[in-house]
Design brief:
- The complex is a heterodimer of chains A (about 170) and B (about 400).
- Chain A is of the alpha+beta class and about 170 residues long.
- Helix content of chain A is about 45%, strand content about 10%.
- Chain A contains 5 helices and 4 strands, in the order βαβαααβαβ.
- A 4-stranded antiparallel sheet of chain A has the order 2-3-1-4, covered by helices on one side.
- In chain A, helix 3 runs antiparallel to helix 4.
- With about 400 residues, chain B is mostly helical.
- Chain B has one domain (about 20-400).
- Chain B has 14 helices and no strands.
- In chain B, helix 2 packs antiparallel against helix 7, helix 3 packs across helix 13 and helix 11 packs antiparallel against helix 12 (about 325-350).
- Chain B is globular and about 65 Å long.
- Residues about 1-5 of chain B have low confidence and may be disordered.
- The chains are: A alpha+beta (about 170), B mainly alpha (about 400).
- Chains A and B meet through helix 4 of A and helix 9 of B.
């Protein structure tokens, strides 16, 4: 199977999210950059420790909400007031309070679906036959720290991560 | 989860120290309120009792809301609220006074409620029984007494930890049976759910004796929850600005509090709109009377103010993560929500006697100052008797460090 080029890196697996957080800080203090972390669930304070910027994903959600809400309102106005006007209890054809639940729900629906798709695209989680998981245990009970290194640094970084409490340290090549 | 050891140096900030003028201002405010109330009773008893009810309800909501927030922390074994728990506890220290003032309110019942007027009779005998004075008084007093006892237990249980650190451990891990603290909190929440709905119907909804809605309890509860959280946020920011927490409260506590205020501003509009939509859609005369009175004659402006102050502004402004650590914005937004809760009480209670919008006058403001004085005196007394942060709580350091797991 043709394998893509992978930059040299070290993967450390921790049992405890707190140790991962401390390791991120320690490794950053040593001057290593481009760190990444793989965790089975979101860890408080990890994105701050990694120095990640605020994600652009909320904007997708916001846009999705307004598009969805607008579509929902338009659909109701079109069906209830234009395509087949119905006089219900003498209310106006476009009666905003009655339209609110559908507007709200369609906004939520489109916001949710568009965020879901945007996350899949942004994280490159599309189905791929040659997808290679970095380690199966990071989806279960391990907290992985990925440190890009130059090949000659690998030994030092492995020792450092071992000292920081990693259960397992491995070269990724 | 393994406990992580990180040295956090937190000196016990000790009891809150308030400037001497705070106490004298609160005493003066109480005296002024009593004087205004007595004067108003002589001039126009109905108006005096209505403004008494508005202010009584507002401060009662804040008081019992404090007890509710504490119970919520115990029942969910939350960590993040530990650091500022003394503030809701201090709010609930007002409840004994609310019990006594509740007895005063019972004297005013004939002046306030149409069903208490001589000759009034409901269509059904069960309703007549429900609104008979002995049953009515018993419900109010049992409810208030229950809240006082629960709030006292929570305060006592919490302050005992200051001298015996680590005692009365809350539930530490999942799967273990809850401690006595969690059990009492669960009991309080069940009692609170029923009793608050009943007294809120008795005190406010019965102002329109023929009108009813099934969303009444949730509506009052949503306002209570949002206002109590906002009050906690307001004083957390205020006290931290004056360096009273000794470094225990940090920026991420602001973020979390602002986030929950934001969330429950949505809950408030959800409940309010759910109540409004069904009445508006069904359009039955016996149901729309409530909203009709509260939307025409200038009261519609108050309704729009409530919509903006309780939902639109908090929702749009507190959504931004950066704004959630800006003290000025937090003070303005949480203050606005608390004010809006008072306006909500005013908007729910006043329209039956003022068909056109009626701006709060010296009676309402004077009685408000009286209640504010009593509330403030009891709350500051509680805070200056006990440490301002629950220093002996086993989860205290985790709460300070922001380790909520």
């Amino acid at each position: 199977m043709p394998s893509k080029y992978r930059p040299p890196a070290v993967l450390a697996l921790f049992l405890d999210p707190q140790k991962l957080l401390d390791a991120v800080k320690a490794v950053k203090d040593k001057g290593y950059r481009g760190l990444d972390a793989y965790t089975p669930y979101p860890v408080h304070g990890l994105s701050e420790a990694l120095g990640l910027k605020i994600s652009w994903m909320p904007r997708v959600t916001k846009t999705g909400f307004f598009v969805g809400a607008g579509l929902g309102f338009t659909l109701e106005a079109w069906t209830m007031a234009w395509a087949w006007p119905l006089n219900i209890a003498g209310k106006p054809f476009i009666s905003v309070p009655a339209y609110m639940p559908v507007t709200f729900e369609s906004g939520i629906l489109i916001a949710g679906i568009s965020t879901f798709c945007a996350v899949l695209i942004a994280a490159r989680l599309r189905p791929a036959p040659n997808f290679h998981n970095i380690d199966d245990s990071i989806t279960n009970d391990r907290f992985g720290l990925y440190v890009p290194v130059r090949p000659y640094e690998s030994g030092n970084v492995q020792t450092l991560l071992k000292e920081l409490g990693a259960e397992e340290v491995r070269d990724l090549a | 989860m393994h406990a992580h050891e990180e040295t956090i140096e937190i000196a016990n900030p000790g009891p809150a120290v308030f400037p001497a003028r705070v106490r004298s201002l609160l005493l003066a405010s109480t005296a002024l309120g009593v004087a205004v109330f007595v004067a108003a009773l002589l001039i126009d008893p109905q108006r005096a009792w209505y403004s008494f009810l508005v202010n009584y309800l507002f401060f009662l909501v804040l008081g019992v809301g404090g007890a509710f927030l504490v119970a919520l922390e115990y029942i969910t074994s939350a960590t993040w609220t530990v650091v500022f728990r003394r503030l809701p506890e201090a709010a609930s220290a007002y409840l004994p006074a609310a019990f006594l003032l509740g007895i005063v309110l019972l004297i005013g019942v004939p002046h306030i409620y149409p069903w208490a007027a001589p000759g009034f009779s409901f269509a059904t005998s069960s309703k007549n029984f429900w609104f008979s004075m002995p049953f009515y008084s018993a419900r109010s007093l049992i409810t208030l007494a229950g809240w006082v006892i629960f709030a006292w237990w929570f305060q006592n249980n919490s302050t005992k930890q200051d001298t015996n650190p680590g005692q009365l451990l809350p539930r530490k891990t999942f799967g273990k049976p809850p401690t006595i603290r969690g059990r009492v909190a669960a009991g309080f929440i069940v009692f609170f759910g029923y009793s608050f709905t009943i007294v809120f119907i008795d005190w406010v909804m019965s102002l329109e004796p023929q009108w009813y809605t099934n969303m009444w309890g949730p509506y009052g509860f949503a306002g209570l929850f949002e206002a109590s959280l906002a009050l906690t946020l307001f004083f957390t920011v205020l006290f931290r600005r004056h360096h009273m927490f000794g470094g225990a409260v940090r920026d991420y506590h602001y973020v979390d509090l602002a986030r929950i205020v934001h969330a429950f501003s949505i809950f408030m509009v959800y409940i309010g709109f759910a109540q409004y939509l069904l009445v508006w859609y069904a359009n039955f005369r016996e149901e729309t009377v409530y909203f009709h009175e509260r939307l025409v004659g200038g009261w519609g402006v108050v309704f729009m103010f409530l919509l903006f102050a309780k939902w639109v502004l908090p929702f749009c402004i507190l959504m931004n993560q950066k704004v959630r650590t800006n003290e000025t914005v937090l003070l303005v937004m949480s203050g606005l929500i608390v004010v809006a809760e008072w306006v909500d009480c005013y908007w729910m209670i006043m329209p039956p006697i003022h068909k056109a919008f009626y701006f709060p006058n010296w009676v309402e403001l004077g009685v408000f100052l009286g209640f504010l004085g009593i509330f403030g005196l009891l709350a500051t007394r509680y805070l200056s008797k006990h440490a301002l942060v629950p220093i002996g709580d086993p989860k205290f350091l985790a709460s300070v460090a922001g380790r909520y797991l």
